[in-house]
Amino acid sequence: MFAKESTMTQLIKALAVGGGVILAAPSVASAATLTLIPNATQTVSATVRCSAAGAPASILAAADAELPGIAAGQNVQGATAIRIGLNPGGRLEYASVMRTSGNPWIDAAALRATRLSHYRSETRDCSSVSGEYAVLVDFSGEDK
User: Fold this and answer.
1) Of 3, 76, 96, 128, which shows the fewest CB atoms inside 10 Å?
2) Quick one: residue 18, left, alpha or beta (phi over 0 = left, psi -120 to 50 = alpha)?
3) d(Cα 23, Cα 122) in Å, to the nearest integer?
């Protein structure tokens, strides 16, 4: 687990690339918070017509991420960073643990919730953009 500094703050500092910012922090009725931040330079792909020049990538529907019973029974909390790749259509191309919580049960629950969530890719200059992001799944219960 991480030091006293807010887990979310520490992970954002560790994972944000090139002054990245939080793209979405959806509020879901679950035991964890999922947050999407950029992780690498995005590349322009399919061109589409749009009324706005650009929009950030976001989590459209975050899957419920419940603290696993075995972790709760051990009174363990933590946060896991999951590396994901989104294609221009917002489809999840890959997901893997980028930074562990230190607990395999929490990491597995974070990976599952990330894979079951739905995303929207970034649009830039009316073009959909593929990219790599980090999804922070926080089971710490700390105030963000």
Assistant:
1) 3
2) left
3) 10
CA distances from 67 to 1, 55, 105, 138 (A): 15, 32, 8, 10
8-44 per-position pLDDT tens digit: 455 454 444 433 333 333 333 335 777 877 765 555 5
pTM: 0.70
Strand 54-55 and strand 118-120: the pairing is unpaired
- Check: CB of residue 9 under 8 Å from CB of residue 33: no
Query: DSSP code of 104?
Result: H
β-bridge partners, 82: 97, 135
Distance between alpha carbon 25 and the CA centroid of its chain, in Å?
9
